[in-house]
Design goal:
heterodimer; A: Alpha-Beta Plaits; 2 domains; three-stranded antiparallel beta sheet; two-stranded antiparallel sheet; B: Cytochrome-c3 Hydrogenase, chain B
Amino acid sequence: MFLKEYFLDIYKATKSLLTGMKLTGYYFTHHKEILTEEYPENRKNLQLAERFRGEVIMPHDANNEHTCTGCSSCEIACPNGSIKIISKFDITPEGKKKKAIDQHIYHLELCTMCGLCVEACPTDAIKMANTFEHSVFNRNHLIKRLNKPGSKIREGIEE
Amino acid sequence: MFEEVGTTTEGDLIINLGPQHPATHGVLHLVITLNGEIIKKVEPHLGYIHRSIEKMTESLSYRQFIYVTSRMDYLSAHINNHACALCVEKALQLEVPQRAQYIRVIMDELTRIASHELWWGAMAMDLGAFTPFFHAFREREKINEIMEETCGARLTMNYMVPGGVMVDLHPDFQKKVKAFIQQYKAKIHEYDELVTGNIIFQNRMKGIGYLSAEDAISYGCTGPVARGSGVASDIRKIAPYDVYDKVEFDEVLQTEGDSFARYMIRIQEMHQSIKIIGQLIDTIPDGNFQAKTKAVIKLPKGEFYQRVETARGELGVYIVSEGAAQPYRIKYRSPGFSNLSALDHMVRGHKIGDLIAAMGTLDLVIPDIDR
């Protein structure tokens, strides 16, 4: 009786090990389904998800116009202080002063890509781009100005 | 430190386990007192990854403080965010749209599966098996892709906001989740073949790190660690939040209390999570994904507490509000801290190799313990 159990244990133990080995062997010989992506070899056809939060950008149209009113909603919403709005006063044709954006400064090095600024923006002026290769040699290059030089606000955009 | 050396008898050896590398089990420092190879005492030292999240939160608004909690227990980031959002909603007495509740629960369960997958791979690697790690990551990658598509991030999602979720689901979401369930069901038997049935694994797990039900309660253990000792502690059953009272699932319980019981709990919890997702995925109601909230959220004066079940156990969020836009004080009750405190009790008298096996079944995430 004792001997029978002894050999049964050995049989079961060997079988359990072989089951695992069989599975490993199966994947060793059937390598059709390769899931590993080899970066950076696949850089050219690497497709990231559309919503991937890589960095904050401000889209400009063909006339170099954006929809940012300089209301500072994104600056208030940011938990890390990575957005700084420098506003100016435009003189409208009627001779009135109107608040407008001068520089939208974005500190990429402070940003945690939480997306709260995009959520807070009332005019959808900023959005998240799905780029991710942000390394630069000089850290000052990470401080970006989002509104392009000479750009202005699109007509009809109000807060 | 010096007093402890004084209390040990002659011939005892005191060794430091970790932190050797940031990629090991977090940055946990264990001071182990050994007699030969027998463990006499294990003392965890914390503080290597303290970021003072609770203090930091006092200067953030009720919208902003949610994203920081993704960095606590990074493997169940969704569930942490969920707890914070629920606590704020509770204080505001805000009605969350049905659609948002469904989305939240599905996301929570996907996160739970992803977390348990990673635990399974990492624990097998602690025991010296390298292959399971890749099998676990194969399934986890699919979940990460689903998360990336809908939430915009793979690990620190920040998808929950007070009143609902940040953006609506991606049009492909339901299709992708169903494909994942298919793949998961087709591959799950590999987990048992590779690890669960393995004789070496079983011999290293059974009877190791015993924790009785009384000790589990007195140490404050929650989650799979408590359920492995037979303590019913699932918050989803005790105090259901969102749509957990509408879905059918079992609270998995084991009474052995050893490492193998805790292992089996997590494996079966993954099946239960799949069951929950299967019930909800086809019946997501239409409607708003976010309730209307004020631009600046101000909580009424008072104290608010909300607990949820993360992949590791009970997470509690305690907010003291003075009526301002920022919390006066926030305290998180993290599951990992209580679970880690039971480690010393579990491994006394065992060999040093068993310490690693027992510690693996606690599923420690150090940033959660040491906020």
